[in-house]
Structure formats: structure tokens, C-alpha cells
Amino acid sequence: MDDRTFAAWEQGLIAVGVLLLVVVAALVLHRMAFAAGERITRRTPGRIDSGVIHYGYRPAQVIFVTLALILVMPALPLPDELTLGLQRLLVLGQTAAIGWLAVSLTNIINDVVAARHDLTAADNLLAREVHTRVRMLQRILVVVIVVITVCLILMAIPSIRQIGVTVFASAGVAGLVIGFAARPALSNLIAGIQLALTQPIRIDDVVIVEGEWGWIEEIRSTFVVVRIWDLRRLVVPLSHFIEHPFQNWTRRTSDILGTVFLYVDYTVPVEAVRRELHRLVQDNPLWDGQVWGLQVTDANDRTVELRALVGARASGDAWNLRCQLREQLIDFLQREYPESLPKMRAELPPRLEEAASAAARPAARPRRKPAPAAPGEGARDDTLRGPQDPK
Known about the structure:
Elements: H1 3-42, H2 48-72, H3 80-105, H4 107-116, H5 125-155, H6 161-170, H7 173-182, H8 184-198, E1 206-209, E2 212-219, E3 223-228, E4 233-237, H9 238-243, E5 247-248, E6 256-264, H10 270-283, E7 287-299, E8 304-312, H11 315-336, H12 350-360, H13 377-385
Antiparallel strand pairs: 1-2, 1-5, 2-3, 3-4, 6-8, 7-8
Helix pairs in contact: 1-2, 2-3, 2-4, 3-5, 4-5, 5-6, 5-8, 7-8, 10-11
């Protein structure tokens, strides 16, 4: 090994050692800075500063290391071409880390909203509105940050800089509008903006979509997850809620009315059933304390239709309340008025009625005829009795 090669190896080892020391120093400095930040956040009640420490810890590590390496790189005994290539890689890494940091910090918005608006409250209409709007805008912001980060990375590479410029230009307002209108996949993003502004659905709304009853569990940038009552998940594109009708049971309030139908005989005492319904709803904690009633809504040739109308604070409570009242009212009729349960009536003409009565009576037994006497039996009887005394 000649002196020139040995010197090159020596310079390379020195450069590697310096780089390792710089990385360790950057990590130590990062840890000290965030430790000081954690001590400060413990003394403050706000969530923003604690969110910065929590979500920015990992991205900041990469930023500290890449920034330190970029600063020390010109002073290293390395060839110019190698130094230039490493600097470009470090710039790309730092750009990606900054984008990562920006995306992570958007989660602070959700934390602040969750702290101020509780979704578990009984009356959570305002909380659901705010959560839905913030989540949609946060996801749109993430998409914008990712697009800008990718464009900046492409523009930092000379050989594909023109591609980065083209992508960046397509991210303009006009390009977005044209692109979203032209592509069905991207049209869901426009639907997401519309949902965030108009809010036909919100987090935890009770909806009926495609014949399925459930709750809005997640609202993503391109689709919505509906949690069906039997714990299945229905994934629906965002554009579906803009282009097709659906039912929203909690658009303005979670209060809802439930109905119970009973089919009884014409002899049913309606007022007695109404009093029993009033007693049952007063004893049931699922009743909202406002709406109740019993009406005769239909009558046909066999039965009378009774409709019990009751109010509940939520759709789940309404379902359970309906089931309980249906069971209790049927039990009440069975105990108190069994003759009022549905029955079949039939009227027969007089002749058919007589024939039916005759068929129902048991047939009379035929009388037995005495057996004929054997020859000579009568003479023997006369002889034994003897002659009759004339009178």
C-alpha cells in the first residue's frame, strides 16, 4: 500500500469518525432539548406544547442529525464529488423529515378538539360537528403537506427537477379542480371538502346506508367506515354521501320516536291498554319522559291495529324500549284480557248449523230384538203353570 492510498484511507476513517461523533452529538443535543421541553410542559396545562413534544420527537431526531451533518460536511477531508452527493442526500432526508414533522404536528389539532369537545357526552351534537370538520380538514392538510414535500424532493434532484415543477404546478387550485373533476378516485377528495363544510354526516351519526343501519365510525379522506349494529363494517366512498340519498337519524338531535304495533281482537279495551302503556313507560328508564301515546291506526275483518308511540334519547335506546314494551303489552293482554287476543270468527247458515249439531251428537244404540222361542218351549211352560181357574 503506497502513501497515497494510505492517506486516502486515513482521511476516510477520520471522516467516518467525525460523522459518527456528529451524529452522537446531535442525538444528545436533541435529547437535552426535548427533556427541557418536557419539564416545561409539565408546568403548563395546555395541550399544544405537550403535543409538540410528543409528536415531534422522532421527526426532530432526523432533522437534528441531518442538519448537523450538512453543517459539518464541507469541513470533512472527502472528495468534492462525494461531498456534493452526500449533501444532496442529506438535503433530501431533511426535507422528508420536515414534511414528516409537519404531518405529525397536525395530530395536535385532533387532541385539542378532543379535549374541548367530549364525544361521550349525552348531548354531543356540537362535539360531533367539530370533530368531523376538524378531522376532514386535518386529512386534507396532510395530503397537501405530502404533495408539497414530494414536489420539493423532486425539485432538489437536478435530473428530474422538471418533473417536480410539473407536479407542483398541478397542485395549484386550477389543477386540483380539473384533476378532481376528471378522475373518479380524486373526486372523493372534493367530496371530503364538501362534507367538511356542509356536514351531512358527522362522527357517531346514526345512518342507514345501502339498507344497513349503523354509526359513522371513521371519516377518511376518500371513504367512510360505517359500524353496522352487528359489528360489521361498511366502507362507503365519500362521493356516495354527496350523490345518493341516505338516512341520518341524528342530523339535528339524537332524540327519536319508536313505534310498537299490536294486533288484537275487536273486544279489546283500548283505554285499559293505554293506561297500562302509560304505566310501563313511566317505569322504564329508556323513555325520554316526553312522548308517548296509543292510537287505533287500522282495522280489518279480523283484528284491530294498535300503535304505541314512545320517545327515546337515542336510536339504541328506542330499539330496546320498543322490544321491552312489546313484550310487556303482550303479557298484559295474556293475563288480563285473553279474550281480546286475535281469533277467527265464522257464522254458519241454520241448515248447516243443524247438520253440524247432529253430527256432533252421539248416535243412539239400536234396541235388541228378543230371540225366537224354540219349538215346544211354550207347551212346556203351559203345562208347568197348569190350567187357569175360570172366574
